[in-house]
Amino acid sequence: MKLIKQFFLITLIIVAATLSPLVSSAQPTDPCGDPADPLCPIDGGVSLLIAAGIGIAAKKAHDAKKTQELK
Questions:
Q1: What pLDDT is attached to residue 60?
Q2: DSSP type of residue 7
Q3: Which of these, 20, 27, 51, 62, has the minimum number of CB atoms within 10 Å of its CB?
Q4: Mind giving me the DSSP string for 14-58?
Q5: Per-residue pLDDT at 6
Q6: Do 44 and 51 contact (CB within 8 A), yes or no?
Q7: 10-50 confidence digits (pLDDT tens)
Q8: How far apart are alpha carbons 13 and 16 in whole angstroms?
């Protein structure tokens, strides 16, 4: 019985891995239309990189202030 469950699980994983590119291959429409549109949203990785940069700058400023207080 355990062998049947293991075979079913492996088969299910292989089928899911095979069919997932077919589902996700559709290209979304361009939300901006015109590339020069100033109202084009910044999504995805760019917003995460901006947030990470702000966080790193805040930590460096905090650490610099902390070391000046100790001196």
A1: 93
A2: H
A3: 27
A4: HHHHHHHHHHHTPPPPPSSSSTT-TT----THHHHHHHHHHHHHH
A5: 87
A6: no
A7: 898 888 888 777 666 556 666 666 666 566 666 667 778 88
A8: 5
Q: Are 21 and 31 in contact (CB under 8 A)?
A: no
- The token pair at 42 is 């910044």
Instruction: Note whether 31 and 40 are within 8 A (CB).
Output: yes
At position 4, the amino acid (one-letter code) is I
What pLDDT, on the 0 to 100 scale, is given for residue 2? Answer: 80
How far apart are the C-alpha atoms of 16 and 10, rounded to whole Å? 10
Q: What is the C-alpha separation between 54 and 63, in angstroms, rounded?
A: 14
- Residue with more model confidence, 61 or 49: 61
